[in-house]
Protein backbone atom coordinates (compact mmCIF):
# COMPACT_ATOMS: atom_id res chain seq x y z
CA UNK A 1 0.00 0.00 0.00
CA UNK A 2 2.78 2.36 1.00
CA UNK A 3 4.70 1.58 -2.21
CA UNK A 4 1.61 2.17 -4.32
CA UNK A 5 0.98 5.54 -2.73
CA UNK A 6 4.63 6.55 -3.07
CA UNK A 7 4.52 5.71 -6.77
CA UNK A 8 1.24 7.56 -7.23
CA UNK A 9 2.81 10.63 -5.66
CA UNK A 10 5.58 10.41 -8.24
CA UNK A 11 2.91 10.55 -10.92
CA UNK A 12 3.23 6.88 -11.82
CA UNK A 13 -0.13 5.10 -12.14
CA UNK A 14 -0.22 2.39 -9.52
CA UNK A 15 -2.54 -0.19 -8.01
CA UNK A 16 -1.61 -1.82 -4.71
CA UNK A 17 -2.12 -5.57 -4.34
CA UNK A 18 -3.15 -6.37 -0.77
CA UNK A 19 -3.98 -9.82 0.60
CA UNK A 20 -7.21 -10.25 2.51
CA UNK A 21 -5.49 -10.67 5.88
CA UNK A 22 -3.70 -7.37 5.40
CA UNK A 23 -6.67 -5.49 3.89
CA UNK A 24 -7.45 -3.57 7.13
CA UNK A 25 -3.79 -2.59 7.38
CA UNK A 26 -4.00 -1.37 3.77
CA UNK A 27 -6.96 0.84 4.71
CA UNK A 28 -5.10 2.16 7.72
CA UNK A 29 -1.95 2.90 5.73
CA UNK A 30 -3.89 4.64 2.97
CA UNK A 31 -5.69 6.82 5.52
CA UNK A 32 -2.55 7.62 7.45
CA UNK A 33 -0.71 8.64 4.27
CA UNK A 34 -3.58 10.92 3.30
CA UNK A 35 -4.74 8.96 0.24
CA UNK A 36 -7.63 6.87 1.60
CA UNK A 37 -8.99 6.10 -1.87
CA UNK A 38 -5.69 4.92 -3.34
CA UNK A 39 -6.62 2.08 -5.70
CA UNK A 40 -6.05 -1.41 -4.43
CA UNK A 41 -7.03 -4.93 -5.35
CA UNK A 42 -7.54 -7.75 -2.90
CA UNK A 43 -5.68 -11.04 -3.21
CA UNK A 44 -6.35 -14.21 -1.26
CA UNK A 45 -4.06 -14.95 1.66
CA UNK A 46 -1.50 -16.37 1.53
CA UNK A 47 -0.02 -15.90 -1.90
CA UNK A 48 3.69 -16.32 -1.23
CA UNK A 49 4.81 -19.91 -1.22
CA UNK A 50 1.59 -21.34 -2.62
CA UNK A 51 3.22 -22.61 -5.80
CA UNK A 52 3.43 -21.67 -9.45
CA UNK A 53 0.03 -23.07 -10.41
CA UNK A 54 -1.77 -21.17 -7.67
CA UNK A 55 0.01 -17.94 -8.53
CA UNK A 56 -1.14 -18.34 -12.16
CA UNK A 57 -4.70 -18.94 -10.98
CA UNK A 58 -4.70 -15.92 -8.64
CA UNK A 59 -3.19 -13.75 -11.37
CA UNK A 60 -5.86 -14.76 -13.88
CA UNK A 61 -8.57 -14.04 -11.31
CA UNK A 62 -7.43 -10.53 -10.43
CA UNK A 63 -5.97 -9.23 -13.68
CA UNK A 64 -9.29 -7.75 -14.81
CA UNK A 65 -9.71 -5.97 -11.47
CA UNK A 66 -6.22 -4.56 -11.75
CA UNK A 67 -6.85 -3.28 -15.28
CA UNK A 68 -10.18 -1.85 -14.16
CA UNK A 69 -8.43 -0.01 -11.33
CA UNK A 70 -5.91 1.47 -13.76
CA UNK A 71 -8.48 2.66 -16.23
CA UNK A 72 -11.62 3.54 -14.24
CA UNK A 73 -12.60 7.05 -13.30
CA UNK A 74 -11.52 7.77 -9.67
CA UNK A 75 -15.10 7.60 -8.39
CA UNK A 76 -15.37 4.09 -9.70
CA UNK A 77 -12.10 2.78 -8.38
CA UNK B 1 -9.03 -13.52 55.65
CA UNK B 2 -7.02 -10.72 54.13
CA UNK B 3 -5.47 -7.91 56.09
CA UNK B 4 -6.71 -4.63 54.64
CA UNK B 5 -4.58 -1.53 54.19
CA UNK B 6 -5.80 2.05 54.61
CA UNK B 7 -4.96 5.09 52.52
CA UNK B 8 -6.29 8.63 52.18
CA UNK B 9 -7.30 8.17 48.55
CA UNK B 10 -6.61 5.96 45.53
CA UNK B 11 -3.47 7.87 44.52
CA UNK B 12 -2.02 7.35 47.99
CA UNK B 13 -3.11 3.71 47.92
CA UNK B 14 -1.27 3.16 44.64
CA UNK B 15 1.93 4.62 46.07
CA UNK B 16 1.54 2.44 49.14
CA UNK B 17 1.16 -0.69 47.02
CA UNK B 18 4.22 0.23 44.95
CA UNK B 19 6.22 0.90 48.12
CA UNK B 20 5.21 -2.46 49.60
CA UNK B 21 6.34 -4.29 46.47
CA UNK B 22 2.80 -5.49 45.80
CA UNK B 23 2.70 -4.43 42.14
CA UNK B 24 4.48 -5.54 38.98
CA UNK B 25 5.88 -2.02 38.63
CA UNK B 26 2.92 -0.71 36.66
CA UNK B 27 -0.11 1.07 38.10
CA UNK B 28 -2.85 -1.24 39.37
CA UNK B 29 -6.54 -0.91 40.02
CA UNK B 30 -6.84 -0.37 43.75
CA UNK B 31 -8.36 -3.50 45.32
CA UNK B 32 -10.96 -1.83 47.51
CA UNK B 33 -13.14 -4.01 49.70
CA UNK B 34 -16.13 -3.36 47.44
CA UNK B 35 -14.27 -4.29 44.23
CA UNK B 36 -12.82 -7.43 45.76
CA UNK B 37 -16.18 -8.49 47.16
CA UNK B 38 -17.74 -8.12 43.71
CA UNK B 39 -14.96 -10.21 42.18
CA UNK B 40 -15.42 -12.90 44.85
CA UNK B 41 -19.16 -12.84 44.12
CA UNK B 42 -18.38 -13.36 40.46
CA UNK B 43 -16.34 -16.43 41.35
CA UNK B 44 -19.40 -18.10 42.85
CA UNK B 45 -17.16 -19.46 45.59
CA UNK B 46 -16.66 -18.61 49.24
CA UNK B 47 -14.04 -15.95 49.83
CA UNK B 48 -12.10 -18.17 52.21
CA UNK B 49 -12.09 -21.26 49.98
CA UNK B 50 -8.49 -22.40 49.68
CA UNK B 51 -7.16 -23.18 46.20
CA UNK B 52 -3.76 -24.25 47.49
CA UNK B 53 -0.47 -23.07 48.92
CA UNK B 54 1.76 -20.97 46.70
CA UNK B 55 5.52 -20.96 46.99
CA UNK B 56 8.11 -19.86 47.65
CA UNK B 57 6.45 -17.87 50.45
CA UNK B 58 3.89 -20.65 51.00
CA UNK B 59 1.06 -18.14 50.97
CA UNK B 60 -2.45 -19.55 51.15
CA UNK B 61 -4.25 -18.87 47.90
CA UNK B 62 -7.84 -18.18 48.90
CA UNK B 63 -10.49 -17.10 46.44
CA UNK B 64 -10.41 -13.67 48.09
CA UNK B 65 -6.66 -13.25 47.57
CA UNK B 66 -6.97 -14.34 43.95
CA UNK B 67 -9.80 -11.82 43.59
CA UNK B 68 -7.52 -9.10 44.97
CA UNK B 69 -4.96 -9.90 42.27
CA UNK B 70 -7.65 -10.01 39.59
CA UNK B 71 -8.93 -6.58 40.58
CA UNK B 72 -5.40 -5.16 40.66
CA UNK B 73 -4.71 -6.61 37.21
CA UNK B 74 -7.74 -4.90 35.69
CA UNK B 75 -9.84 -8.03 35.24
CA UNK B 76 -13.56 -7.95 34.75
CA UNK B 77 -15.81 -10.48 36.45
CA UNK B 78 -15.95 -12.42 33.16
CA UNK B 79 -12.22 -13.12 33.35
CA UNK B 80 -12.40 -14.62 36.83
CA UNK B 81 -13.10 -18.28 35.83
CA UNK B 82 -9.95 -18.37 33.72
CA UNK B 83 -7.88 -16.68 36.41
CA UNK B 84 -9.10 -19.21 38.96
CA UNK B 85 -8.30 -22.13 36.66
CA UNK B 86 -4.83 -20.75 35.90
CA UNK B 87 -4.09 -20.40 39.61
CA UNK B 88 -5.34 -23.92 40.29
CA UNK B 89 -3.18 -25.22 37.45
CA UNK B 90 0.08 -23.68 38.64
CA UNK B 91 -0.65 -24.97 42.14
CA UNK B 92 -0.60 -28.59 40.96
CA UNK B 93 2.57 -30.28 42.24
CA UNK B 94 3.57 -31.27 38.69
CA UNK B 95 4.00 -27.63 37.78
CA UNK B 96 6.89 -27.15 40.25
CA UNK B 97 5.82 -23.56 40.91
CA UNK B 98 7.97 -22.97 43.97
CA UNK B 99 11.09 -24.06 42.15
CA UNK B 100 10.08 -22.16 39.02
CA UNK B 101 9.49 -18.95 40.97
CA UNK B 102 12.94 -19.24 42.50
CA UNK B 103 15.08 -20.30 39.54
CA UNK B 104 17.69 -18.14 37.85
CA UNK B 105 16.20 -19.19 34.49
CA UNK B 106 13.85 -16.82 32.68
CA UNK B 107 10.55 -18.64 32.77
CA UNK B 108 6.96 -17.55 33.19
CA UNK B 109 3.69 -19.45 33.14
CA UNK B 110 2.24 -19.27 29.65
CA UNK B 111 -1.56 -19.57 29.86
CA UNK B 112 -3.17 -21.26 26.85
CA UNK B 113 -6.98 -21.18 26.78
CA UNK B 114 -9.12 -23.63 24.81
CA UNK B 115 -12.84 -24.20 24.45
CA UNK B 116 -15.88 -21.98 25.03
CA UNK B 117 -14.17 -19.94 27.77
CA UNK B 118 -12.25 -18.20 24.99
CA UNK B 119 -15.50 -16.45 24.07
CA UNK B 120 -17.39 -16.57 27.35
CA UNK B 121 -14.69 -15.08 29.55
CA UNK B 122 -14.18 -11.69 28.02
CA UNK B 123 -13.00 -12.59 24.53
CA UNK B 124 -9.49 -14.01 24.84
CA UNK B 125 -7.59 -13.19 21.66
CA UNK B 126 -6.08 -15.87 19.45
CA UNK B 127 -5.30 -13.94 16.27
CA UNK B 128 -3.01 -11.07 15.31
CA UNK B 129 -0.83 -10.04 18.23
CA UNK B 130 -2.55 -12.39 20.65
CA UNK B 131 0.35 -12.13 23.06
CA UNK B 132 -0.11 -8.38 23.12
CA UNK B 133 -0.31 -5.59 23.52
CA UNK B 134 -3.88 -4.47 23.14
CA UNK B 135 -6.06 -7.41 24.18
CA UNK B 136 -7.67 -6.69 27.51
CA UNK B 137 -8.63 -10.21 28.53
CA UNK B 138 -5.23 -11.67 27.62
CA UNK B 139 -3.39 -8.84 29.36
CA UNK B 140 -5.51 -8.86 32.51
CA UNK B 141 -5.76 -12.63 33.02
CA UNK B 142 -2.02 -13.19 32.65
CA UNK B 143 -1.28 -10.22 34.85
CA UNK B 144 -3.64 -11.49 37.55
CA UNK B 145 -1.71 -14.76 37.76
CA UNK B 146 1.56 -12.86 38.01
CA UNK B 147 0.20 -10.65 40.81
CA UNK B 148 -0.85 -13.83 42.64
CA UNK B 149 2.69 -15.14 42.22
CA UNK B 150 4.06 -11.88 43.63
CA UNK B 151 1.64 -11.28 46.48
CA UNK B 152 0.60 -14.80 47.48
CA UNK B 153 3.70 -16.67 46.31
CA UNK B 154 6.03 -13.93 47.48
CA UNK B 155 8.20 -13.77 44.37
CA UNK B 156 10.31 -10.61 44.42
CA UNK B 157 13.20 -10.02 42.02
CA UNK B 158 16.62 -10.63 43.49
CA UNK B 159 15.46 -12.08 46.79
CA UNK B 160 12.93 -14.80 46.07
CA UNK B 161 12.47 -14.61 42.29
CA UNK B 162 16.04 -15.13 41.14
CA UNK B 163 15.48 -14.93 37.36
CA UNK B 164 18.70 -13.38 36.16
CA UNK B 165 17.06 -11.00 33.72
CA UNK B 166 13.37 -11.95 33.76
CA UNK B 167 11.31 -11.70 30.58
CA UNK B 168 8.44 -9.56 29.35
CA UNK B 169 6.00 -12.47 29.67
CA UNK B 170 6.43 -12.16 33.41
CA UNK B 171 4.08 -9.18 33.24
CA UNK B 172 1.44 -11.20 31.41
CA UNK B 173 1.55 -14.25 29.13
CA UNK B 174 -1.83 -15.48 27.96
CA UNK B 175 -3.44 -16.41 24.66
CA UNK B 176 -6.19 -18.58 23.23
CA UNK B 177 -5.94 -21.15 20.46
CA UNK B 178 -7.56 -20.19 17.16
CA UNK B 179 -9.59 -23.40 17.08
CA UNK B 180 -12.07 -22.16 14.50
CA UNK B 181 -9.42 -21.76 11.80
CA UNK B 182 -7.01 -24.50 12.78
CA UNK B 183 -6.84 -27.61 10.58
CA UNK B 184 -5.80 -29.66 13.62
CA UNK B 185 -7.57 -30.96 16.71
CA UNK B 186 -7.25 -28.36 19.47
CA UNK B 187 -4.60 -28.63 22.13
CA UNK B 188 -7.01 -29.55 24.92
CA UNK B 189 -8.53 -32.36 22.87
CA UNK B 190 -5.03 -33.66 22.20
CA UNK B 191 -4.58 -33.69 25.97
CA UNK B 192 -7.71 -35.78 26.57
CA UNK B 193 -10.46 -33.22 27.10
CA UNK B 194 -13.72 -32.97 25.18
CA UNK B 195 -14.01 -30.29 22.48
CA UNK B 196 -16.69 -28.45 24.48
CA UNK B 197 -14.61 -28.38 27.64
CA UNK B 198 -13.04 -25.09 28.61
CA UNK B 199 -9.46 -25.74 29.57
CA UNK B 200 -6.47 -23.73 30.71
CA UNK B 201 -3.07 -25.24 30.00
CA UNK B 202 -0.06 -23.70 31.72
CA UNK B 203 3.60 -24.32 31.13
CA UNK B 204 6.64 -22.50 32.45
CA UNK B 205 7.97 -21.03 29.24
CA UNK B 206 10.66 -18.78 27.91
CA UNK B 207 9.70 -15.76 25.85
CA UNK B 208 8.50 -16.58 22.32
CA UNK B 209 11.28 -17.35 19.87
CA UNK B 210 10.43 -16.57 16.26
CA UNK B 211 10.82 -19.29 13.63
CA UNK B 212 10.92 -17.99 10.08
CA UNK B 213 9.84 -20.23 7.23
CA UNK B 214 8.89 -19.21 3.72
CA UNK B 215 6.74 -21.95 2.24
CA UNK B 216 6.96 -23.28 -1.28
CA UNK B 217 4.05 -25.44 -2.36
CA UNK B 218 6.06 -26.68 -5.33
CA UNK B 219 8.67 -28.23 -3.05
CA UNK B 220 7.73 -31.80 -2.04
CA UNK B 221 9.75 -31.32 1.15
CA UNK B 222 7.89 -28.16 2.16
CA UNK B 223 6.34 -29.59 5.34
CA UNK B 224 9.49 -31.46 6.34
CA UNK B 225 11.59 -28.33 5.89
CA UNK B 226 9.22 -26.38 8.13
CA UNK B 227 9.39 -29.11 10.78
CA UNK B 228 13.20 -28.93 10.70
CA UNK B 229 13.08 -25.19 11.28
CA UNK B 230 10.67 -25.61 14.18
CA UNK B 231 12.84 -28.34 15.71
CA UNK B 232 15.90 -26.09 15.59
CA UNK B 233 14.00 -23.37 17.44
CA UNK B 234 12.58 -25.80 19.98
CA UNK B 235 15.81 -27.42 21.01
CA UNK B 236 18.88 -25.71 19.67
CA UNK B 237 21.94 -26.20 21.85
CA UNK B 238 21.37 -22.90 23.62
CA UNK B 239 18.06 -24.08 25.08
CA UNK B 240 17.45 -25.86 28.35
CA UNK B 241 15.43 -28.39 26.34
CA UNK B 242 18.58 -29.54 24.52
CA UNK B 243 20.89 -29.34 27.53
CA UNK B 244 18.79 -30.32 30.55
CA UNK B 245 16.28 -32.37 28.49
CA UNK B 246 13.04 -34.00 29.55
CA UNK B 247 10.87 -30.91 29.86
CA UNK B 248 8.09 -29.58 27.68
CA UNK B 249 7.96 -26.82 25.10
CA UNK B 250 5.39 -24.98 23.03
CA UNK B 251 4.95 -24.60 19.28
CA UNK B 252 2.53 -21.89 18.16
CA UNK B 253 1.92 -22.37 14.47
CA UNK B 254 0.68 -19.41 12.51
CA UNK B 255 -2.19 -20.26 10.14
CA UNK B 256 0.02 -20.26 7.05
CA UNK B 257 2.46 -22.73 8.54
CA UNK B 258 -0.42 -24.85 9.86
CA UNK B 259 -1.76 -25.01 6.33
CA UNK B 260 1.59 -26.20 4.97
CA UNK B 261 1.58 -29.09 7.44
CA UNK B 262 -2.08 -29.87 6.91
CA UNK B 263 -1.69 -29.97 3.13
CA UNK B 264 0.97 -32.63 3.63
CA UNK B 265 -1.76 -34.66 5.40
CA UNK B 266 -0.06 -34.34 8.76
CA UNK B 267 -2.14 -34.46 11.93
CA UNK B 268 -1.32 -33.08 15.37
CA UNK B 269 0.04 -36.52 16.31
CA UNK B 270 2.24 -36.72 13.21
CA UNK B 271 3.68 -33.26 13.80
CA UNK B 272 4.67 -33.73 17.43
CA UNK B 273 6.02 -37.20 16.63
CA UNK B 274 8.24 -35.77 13.90
CA UNK B 275 9.39 -32.89 16.10
CA UNK B 276 10.20 -35.45 18.78
CA UNK B 277 12.32 -37.40 16.27
CA UNK B 278 14.02 -34.27 14.96
CA UNK B 279 15.16 -33.37 18.46
CA UNK B 280 17.25 -36.48 18.96
CA UNK B 281 20.86 -35.34 18.99
CA UNK B 282 24.29 -36.98 19.08
CA UNK B 283 25.60 -37.31 22.59
CA UNK B 284 28.90 -35.83 21.39
CA UNK B 285 27.09 -32.55 20.83
CA UNK B 286 25.98 -32.42 24.44
CA UNK B 287 29.46 -33.34 25.65
CA UNK B 288 30.93 -30.50 23.65
CA UNK B 289 28.48 -27.77 24.63
CA UNK B 290 26.53 -29.00 27.64
CA UNK B 291 29.25 -28.74 30.28
CA UNK B 292 28.60 -30.69 33.43
CA UNK B 293 25.04 -31.46 32.35
CA UNK B 294 26.41 -33.87 29.75
CA UNK B 295 27.50 -36.31 32.43
CA UNK B 296 23.86 -37.16 33.20
CA UNK B 297 23.33 -38.69 29.78
CA UNK B 298 24.46 -42.27 29.48
CA UNK B 299 23.90 -45.09 27.04
CA UNK B 300 23.07 -44.61 23.40
CA UNK B 301 24.94 -42.51 20.91
CA UNK B 302 21.91 -40.27 20.65
CA UNK B 303 19.93 -38.57 23.36
CA UNK B 304 16.45 -37.06 23.31
CA UNK B 305 15.54 -33.49 24.10
CA UNK B 306 11.97 -34.59 24.94
CA UNK B 307 10.82 -37.66 26.82
CA UNK B 308 7.71 -38.07 24.68
CA UNK B 309 6.07 -36.43 21.64
CA UNK B 310 3.15 -35.20 23.74
CA UNK B 311 5.52 -33.07 25.81
CA UNK B 312 5.58 -30.75 22.80
CA UNK B 313 2.47 -28.57 23.10
CA UNK B 314 1.18 -27.70 19.63
CA UNK B 315 -1.42 -25.05 18.90
CA UNK B 316 -2.37 -22.56 16.22
CA UNK B 317 -2.64 -18.85 16.96
CA UNK B 318 -1.64 -15.50 15.57
CA UNK B 319 -1.88 -13.84 12.21
CA UNK B 320 -0.96 -15.58 9.00
CA UNK B 321 2.54 -15.18 7.59
CA UNK B 322 6.19 -16.19 7.75
CA UNK B 323 6.60 -16.57 11.49
CA UNK B 324 5.59 -19.23 13.95
CA UNK B 325 6.74 -19.16 17.56
CA UNK B 326 8.35 -21.67 19.85
CA UNK B 327 8.73 -21.38 23.59
CA UNK B 328 11.39 -23.63 25.12
CA UNK B 329 11.03 -24.27 28.83
CA UNK B 330 13.06 -24.58 32.00
CA UNK B 331 13.12 -28.41 32.16
CA UNK B 332 14.05 -28.55 35.82
CA UNK B 333 12.29 -29.03 39.13
CA UNK B 334 11.14 -32.38 40.44
CA UNK B 335 8.66 -32.86 37.59
CA UNK B 336 10.73 -31.12 34.92
CA UNK B 337 8.37 -28.16 35.13
CA UNK B 338 5.55 -30.07 33.44
CA UNK B 339 2.64 -28.59 31.54
CA UNK B 340 -0.63 -28.81 33.48
CA UNK B 341 -4.18 -28.58 32.13
CA UNK B 342 -7.08 -27.50 34.29
CA UNK B 343 -10.79 -27.48 33.51
CA UNK B 344 -12.33 -24.00 33.68
CA UNK B 345 -15.43 -24.12 35.86
CA UNK B 346 -17.94 -21.87 34.14
CA UNK B 347 -21.09 -22.99 35.95
CA UNK B 348 -20.44 -21.76 39.51
CA UNK B 349 -19.97 -18.22 38.33
CA UNK B 350 -22.89 -15.84 38.53
CA UNK B 351 -23.60 -12.47 37.03
CA UNK B 352 -23.20 -9.69 39.51
CA UNK B 353 -25.74 -6.86 39.57
CA UNK B 354 -24.93 -3.55 37.82
Description:
The complex is a heterodimer of chains A (77) and B (354). Chain A is mainly α and 77 residues long. Chain A has helices spanning 2-9, 23-32, 52-71, and strands spanning 16-19, 40-43. In chain A, strand 1, helix 2 (23-32) and strand 2 (40-43) form a beta-alpha-beta unit. By secondary structure, chain B is of the alpha+beta class. Chain B folds into two domains: 1-177, no CATH class; 207-328, no CATH class. Chain B has 13 helices and twelve strands. In chain B, the strands form four sheets. Chain B has a four-stranded mixed beta sheet. A four-stranded mixed beta sheet of chain B has the order 6-11-7-10. The model of chain B has no long low-confidence stretch (mean pLDDT 95). Chains A and B meet through loops of A and helix 11 of B.
Give the biggest sheet of chain A: 2 strands, parallel
Query: Which class best fits the helix and strand makeup of chain A?
Result: mainly alpha
* Main sheet strand line-up of chain A: 1-2
Model regions low in confidence, pLDDT < 50 over at least 5 residues of chain B: none
Q: What percent of the residues of chain B sit in helical stretches (DSSP H or I)?
A: 25-40%
**Topology as H/E string of chain B?**
HHEEHHHEHHEHEEHHEHHEHEEEE
Briefly say what this structure is.
Chain A has 77 residues and is mainly alpha-helical.
Helix/strand layout:
The complex is a heterodimer of chains A (77) and B (354).
Chain A lengths: L1 H8 L6 E4 L3 H10 L7 E4 L8 H20 L6
Parallel strand pairs in A: 1-2
Chain B lengths: L9 H10 L13 H11 L6 E5 L4 E4 H11 L6 H11 L6 H6 L5 E7 L2 H4 L15 H16 L22 E3 L10 H4 L8 E7 L3 E4 L9 H13 L5 H4 L5 E5 L1 H9 L4 H11 L1 E3 H7 L12 E3 L7 E5 L6 E5 L12 E4 L11
Parallel strand pairs in B: 3-4, 7-10
Antiparallel strand pairs in B: 1-2, 3-5, 5-12, 6-11, 7-11, 8-9
Helix pairs in contact in B: 2-3, 3-4, 3-7, 4-7, 9-11, 9-12
Amino acid sequence: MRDGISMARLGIPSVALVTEDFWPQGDFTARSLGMPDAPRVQLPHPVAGTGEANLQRVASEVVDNIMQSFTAEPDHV
Amino acid sequence: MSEWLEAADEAAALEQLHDLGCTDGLPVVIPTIERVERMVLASGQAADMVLGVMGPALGVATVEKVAVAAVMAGCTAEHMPVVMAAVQAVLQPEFDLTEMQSTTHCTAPLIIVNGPARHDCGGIASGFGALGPGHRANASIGRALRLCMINIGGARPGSSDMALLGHPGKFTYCLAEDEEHSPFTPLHVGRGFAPDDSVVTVIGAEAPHSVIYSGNADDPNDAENLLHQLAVGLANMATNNAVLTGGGAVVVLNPEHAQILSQANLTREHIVQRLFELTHFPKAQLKQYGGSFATRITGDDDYRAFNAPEDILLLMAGGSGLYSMVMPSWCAGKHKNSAVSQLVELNPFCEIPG
